[in-house]
Write a structure and sequence with these properties.
With about 325 residues, this protein is of the alpha/beta class. The chain is about 40% helix and about 20% strand. The protein is built from eleven helices and 16 strands. The strands form four sheets. A six-stranded parallel sheet has the order 2-1-3-4-8-9. Helix 8 (about 230-240) links the parallel strand 12 (about 215-220) and strand 13 (about 245). The protein starts with 5 loop residues before the first strand and ends with a strand.
Length: about 325
């Protein structure tokens, strides 16, 4: 059956900051027989999908396009935004509360501009099972949340067959916070070689760094942070490296293919050293677990062909038997 084409309109982000989300979305759609394009301008012949994080300027651009063309967009949600106890929670803390990961005012304006975009939104999309967006249907009645299932991962032979004795024991490519710095410093004090670039980098550069290490690190933004980074774990698998998460106790789907260590345990460094030494077999187990999980997840959350089909019909892009 012919599918409508889908366009990822990535005008409101530096590409390096969303490359993992783009890769997930493109892989998922293509694995389900959709033609996908990516670009800085919207498409007049495809369904347009954007990634959340709007400013006053990008909100206006979205509004102008949707108003003039009489179109809507799907919005991929990437942040943990929940509604509970009569208030909005952003990354597990009340909206606007002080933290060293994202400025409180940035939280507020991010929610504000998202709400102002709602007239142009067909639905929200979640990549896999995170973010959960708990209670968002109560805060925003009428806006549906649809799930894109995990794509299967087949690492390229050039990456997965590399020698495992990389230049570094581990690599961490996330933004630096006080908690993350404390963990990275502790690893170096115990003799581990750690690569921790501070600048935003291209996906290719990040993948090359992953391949130069034995394991990829996931470290939460702060103590008590609830979630693994699904995108970081998947990026590690694609580059032939296992991910070890230090300081999380997440139970999301990707936790089955990522080893988590509690840094409060007195022997966590010893356990970490053993895992790094066993990185090749750890990777094989993680990859097998990930693809098995992806199959189970899609049985529970089938690909939303109905969404794309009806959306294309209502926008005049697709009629019974083919494109308009």
């Amino acid at each position: 059956m012919k599918r409508p084409s889908v366009h990822l309109w990535v005008y409101n982000h530096p590409f390096a900051g969303i490359s993992d989300q783009v890769a997930f979305t493109v892989s998922c759609l293509r694995q389900h027989d959709y033609t996908v394009t990516v670009g800085r301008r919207p498409s007049s012949v495809s369904l347009n999908v954007v990634i959340e994080n709007f400013s006053a300027e990008t909100r206006a651009i979205l509004g102008e396009f949707c108003t003039v063309s009489r179109r809507q967009v799907a919005v991929i949600m990437t942040e943990h935004i929940n509604w509970a106890h009569g208030r909005v929670w952003f990354h597990g803390i009340p909206l606007g509360e002080e933290n060293d990961y994202i400025h409180p005012q940035t939280m507020v304006t991010r929610i504000q501009f998202l709400l102002e975009c709602l007239p142009y939104v067909r639905c929200f999309m979640v990549l896999g099972d995170l973010p959960e967006l708990q209670g968002l249907d109560q805060l925003l009645p009428g806006i549906r949340v649809r799930t894109l299932p995990f794509p299967h991962v087949m690492p390229s032979p050039s990456r997965s067959n590399r020698r495992t004795g990389g230049a570094y024991d581990c690599v961490f490519t996330g933004n630096i916070t006080k908690f993350r710095t404390s963990i990275l410093d502790a690893l170096q004090e115990h003799g581990f070689t750690v690569w921790r670039p501070s600048e935003l980098m291209s996906r290719k550069r990040r993948n090359d760094l992953n391949g130069a290490a034995k394991v990829v690190l996931n470290i939460p933004q702060r103590a008590g942070w609830k979630w693994l980074s699904s995108m970081r774990v998947i990026a590690g698998l694609v580059t032939g490296r296992p991910t070890i998460s230090l300081g999380t106790q997440d139970t999301s789907r990707v936790s089955c293919c990522c080893t988590q260590l509690a840094v409060s345990k007195p022997d966590w460094v010893r356990e970490f050293r053993e895992l790094v030494a066993d990185a090749p077999s750890l990777y094989r187990r993680n990859l097998e677990c990930y693809n098995a999980m992806a199959e189970r997840f899609e049985i529970e959350h089938p690909f939303p062909h109905d969404l794309f089909g009806m959306w294309a019909v209502t926008e005049g892009l697709w009629r019974q038997g083919g494109y308009a």
